[in-house]
Specification:
Shape: elongated
Strand content: 25-35%
Strand order of the largest sheet: 3-2-1-9-4
Radius of gyration: 36 Å
Number of helices: 2
Number of strands: 9
Oligomer: single chain
Distance between the termini: 94 Å
Amino acid sequence: MRMVLLLGAVLVTAACSAPRGTTPSPIAEPAPLPTTPATPATTTTTPPPTPPCAVTTGACVSLAQRLAWLLRDGRVVRGPVPAGFGPPDQATPAGSFHVVWKDREHRSSEYGTDMPNSVFFAAGGIAFHAGPLDAPSHGCVHLSDADSAAFFDGLNVGDAVQVL
């Protein structure tokens, strides 16, 4: 045991008595990266869905996609916008219709609820109007406040409405 301690003391002394004029080896710096021409960042964006309807002036509604479009002279002027519909027992009717009348501040006499920016297009009081997108309607097409105002301003009595 005495030999081990003596050997340890010799090693510590040798290590601690290194000449003071030496400098430790520098830490290796990473090699510079090769320079290549910058590649512009590209992002791939999916174009919005196109309206599935034959309407050129009026509105198109896709029940399956839960979207609506406002069209004028074959161009999309608003949309696609999110839309809400009626549940199966009060389903939003599919088919081809025309705007029958409009009422900016309509109140449902049947349900006692406000229907801002109402654009009526189907029998039974079915209309586009402002309403919650996450709550079922009574067959109407719910739109956000801004979208319902745009549909109200953009649709005229007689314009086509197609619901698929």
